[in-house]
Amino acid sequence: MKLLDGKTVLVTGGSTGIGRAAAIGAARHGADVAINYHSRDEDAESCVAEIESLGQRAFALKGDVALPETATDFVAKAVAAFGKVDVMVSNAGICPFHAFLDMPVEVFERTQKVNMHGAYFMCQAAARQMVAQGHGGAIVAVSSISALVGGEFQTHYTPTKAGVHSLMQSAAIALGKHNIRCNSVLPGTILTEINKDDLADPEKRRSMEGRVPLGRLGAPDDLAGPIVFLASDMAAYVTGAALLVDGGMYVNLQ
Ligand SMILES: NC(=O)C1=CN([C@@H]2O[C@H](COP(=O)(O)OP(=O)(O)OC[C@H]3O[C@@H](n4cnc5c(N)ncnc54)[C@H](OP(=O)(O)O)[C@@H]3O)[C@@H](O)[C@H]2O)C=CC1
Ligand SMILES: C[C@H](O)[C@@H]1OC(=O)[C@H](O)[C@@H]1O
């Protein structure tokens, strides 16, 4: 069964990792897909090619989500290409691991701007378009297990993920009257570019794996199903929710 037949889905950070898996997952479920990305031109083009090979329409637009105009431009180009916006998957994010006491101001500010401001502007631009269309929609934001727990080298990052989770709760209230649903997914540790260097340390990797009851770290595709579900009409009465997708890592106290 295809869950997103005839829908138009926008994904930020779609060149690689979780965003790419979400974009291709949406296409497998019948959606036309627009991806935003920041620097990986070849990966973005190969994502578009993979979506087109599934028989769906797709395009990639390069832009920095930290800037409000990237969001308005992305939504406008999607409307020009596909005629409408049904789903926004706000996923783009960075996590430059760094100690707290000597955190450079630029690293702190850039992380806030990409992860938090980026999510805000993208979700707002998509919501404005959905309200104008008048037939509802769905927003899925990629938060994190880190919205709920801390990280020694993530003091700049975890508050942005809590912020994204909170943004979905408030947006669910603001947009419910327009039948626009807003939910977040909270991935655990998923093997992507964002943590390649951090998990190159075998001891760190073993210790993270050891915390997962399902016995393995996640793959980007592990997020595709939950994101497609929350984007789809199967989740028609789900809004303001947060779905942990972490192999059980969060509940594993002892
Ligand atoms: N991997 C994990 O363990 C977890 C990840 N997450 C969250 O998932 C999301 C995706 O991360 P993940 O797939 O792991 O990471 P990746 O590094 O694999 O992918 C990040 C994506 O975001 C894009 N991006 C980065 N900065 C910008 C920017 N300024 N403007 C537009 N796009 C940008 C990248 O584009 P490009 O590469 O083209 O520059 C890329 O497409 C993030 O929000 C992250 O916080 C949450 C929990 C766990
Ligand atoms: C980048 C990290 O490996 C990853 O990011 C998150 O949000 C998770 O909590 C992991 O720490």
From TrEMBL:
Superkingdom of the source? Answer: Bacteria
User: What are this entry's molecular-function GO terms?
Assistant: oxidoreductase activity, acting on the CH-OH group of donors, NAD or NADP as acceptor; quinone binding
Annotated Ketoreductase domain residues: 7-193
Q: What are the EC numbers?
A: 1.1.1.378
Under Pfam families, the record lists: adh_short_C2
Write down the PANTHER family for this protein, in alphabetical order. Answer: (3R)-3-HYDROXYACYL-COA DEHYDROGENASE, SHORT-CHAIN DEHYDROGENASES/REDUCTASES FAMILY MEMBER
Under what name is this protein listed? L-rhamnose 1-dehydrogenase (NAD(P)(+))
What is the native source organism of this protein?
A: Sphingomonas aliaeris
